Amino acid sequence: MTSPSTPGTGTGTTDTPGPGPGSGHEVAALYGPEFAADPYRVYDRLRAYGPLAPVEIAPGIGAMLVTDHRAALELLHDTDTWSKDSRRWQETVPPDSPVLPILGWRPNALVNDGAAHRRYRQVVTDSFALIPPHELREHTRQTSEALIARFAGKGRADLIAEYASKLPVLVFNRLFGMPDAHSDQLVAALCGMLDASTPEEATTANTAFSSYIGELIAEKSERRGPDLTSWFMDHPAQLSQEELQDQIVLTMAAGHNPTTNLIGNALARMLSDDRYYSTLSSGGLTPRDALHDVLHNDPPMSNLSPHFPRRDVFFHGTWVRAGQLVLVSYAAANTQHGRTRPGESAGAGGSGGGAHLAWAAGPHSCPVQNPARLIATTAIERLTAWLSDIELTVPHDELVWRHGPFHRALVELPARFTPITPDQAGATPWGSSPSSSTRPDGTSPVRPDASASAGPPHA
Ligand code: HEM
User: Fold this and answer.
1) Which atom of ligand 1 is nearest to the CA of 299?
2) Atom 11 of ligand 1: nearest residue by CA position
3) Given ligand 1 and candidates 366, 368, 407, which is best to mutate, with the most ligand atoms within 8 Å of its CB?
4) Which of 239, 264, 294, 248 is nearest to 128 (CA)?
5) Is ligand 1 within 6 A of the CB of residue 301?
6) 1-105+302-354 and 112-298+358-459 in the same fold
7) Most buried among 6, 69, 245, 457, by the most CB within 10 A?
8) HSE (CB half, 13 Å, CA atoms) of 88?
9) What pLDDT, on the 0 to 100 scale, is given for residue 129?
10) Tell me, what's the pLDDT at 382?
């Protein structure tokens, strides 16, 4: 049994390193290059502690990490024992801690419990339910093709910077009701917040984001439309101005990074695996298979679902003190019985089948799963349809991953392909990009709506 004096006992900061199996005083750091390079090796080590392990999520900030699938499900559903409210914990953390933007308290769905949570969440779920899936698909198709057109003629692209990280932002810009002319402003703000390497860059991006949100709310206060902002504003929950702003910020922030990672991680697997490549000619694995693969084996958010026990609790063999930060490792729980590496077939009983926790579970599970899946599937289908011989320029195991405890995110995804000319009359991805994988009749199963894109993508 692990004693209650594990790291971060009742506080945010690491105090006494907990007793590790064998090592005695090692606490794994979920930040920095070692973790980013191979988080799965770290999870394997952490499993030696049992279902919960002590970790650091930033220098001096301790947490307990749930690595066991059954324990994770139990925690995610047990709202009597576990709270999402981070206010007490936050008082124990330095105000400039890098984890506060994600874990700090706001009046939003993510970090509230009970009736307050249900009210915020209802605004998000009811509003997304008003978006017809065929419109979201068409809108994502147009956005995908506009982005592809920007690099299609070059024969090379970084599929993170030029595609996966921009696409969700451009889609959100329109879903929230802003004209396309504002999309670059939102891209600069959201991508800038993610890429900031200095406090000054982070401040600039934050300011840009705040000013975008301010303009958005001002615009929609004047003129409602069939968009998420207007539906949030007019929702029967009657959000205050602050609550409105926080639900918009949460929805954009909670949607951007994970959707980028879902597209990026799935493309990384597809473009380095012949079984997907052959999809273009002989109907092997599809983009949907790639998403499924990634959700199990490289979940876009690897460790999140911050929870705080309402009282001292003995949980799966470990004492956790009231108010102590506990995170759920979706990545570790999903791969507890094996992980399918890129290019491998999922083994029986391995991580290829069964339920995964990539969307979390319980009352705080991702409320936007179907739209997110639709955006990612459409983005991947469009890219592989237009650039049918696209391939990575580096092997999958040499790809570089972003540092950070919460996500599984590629720094870049360099790819090459036969260039196509966007304004080439009558160009189709099949005619202008000859490849051995191309079916002569151009009816690959990855293009279910091929008729919708008989022309070239337009910038
Ligand atoms: C359109 C894109 C998306 C939007 C707008 C979105 C929005 C949200 C929102 C509002 C929440 C908070 C729900 C609550 O606390 O009740 C949430 C939670 C969550 N989402 Fe999504 N999401 C998107 C895509 C994704 C993707 C692609 C993934 C990864 C596969 C993901 C994984 C999660 C997880 C794991 C949580 C639970 C987080 C926690 O409790 O700490 N989301 N999402």
Assistant:
1) 30
2) 366
3) 366
4) 248
5) yes
6) no
7) 6
8) 15
9) 98
10) 96
Q: In the predicted model, what is the mean pLDDT of residues 6-13?
A: 46
Q: How far is the CA of 100 from the centre of ligand 1 (A)?
A: 18
Residue with the bigger pLDDT between 210 and 130: it is 130
Percent of the residues in the chain that have a pLDDT greater than 70, as a whole number:
83
Contacts of 90 (CB under 8 A, 6+ apart): 12, 100, 103, 104, 105
Confidence of residue 388 (pLDDT cuts 50, 70, 90): confident
Q: What does the alpha-carbon distance between residue 121 and residue 316 come to, in Å, rounded to a whole number?
A: 30
Written in H, E and C, the secondary structure of 341-364 is CCCCCCCCCCCCCCCCCCCCCHHH
Q: Say whether domain 1-105+302-354 belongs to CATH 3.30.43.20.
A: yes
Q: What kind of fold does domain 112-298+358-459 have according to CATH?
A: Cytochrome p450 (1.10.630)
Which among 75, 228, 368, 370 is the best mutation to test ligand 1's pocket, defined by most ligand atoms within 8 Å of the CB? 368
331/335 Cα distance (integer angstroms): 6
**Cβ(225)–Cβ(177) under 8 Å?**
yes
Closest CA to 267 of 285, 301, 283, 291: 291
Write down the pTM of the prediction.
Answer: 0.89
The Cα 47–Cα 31 span in angstroms is 18
Cβ-based neighbour number of residue 276 at 10 Å:
24
pLDDT at 43 over 70: yes
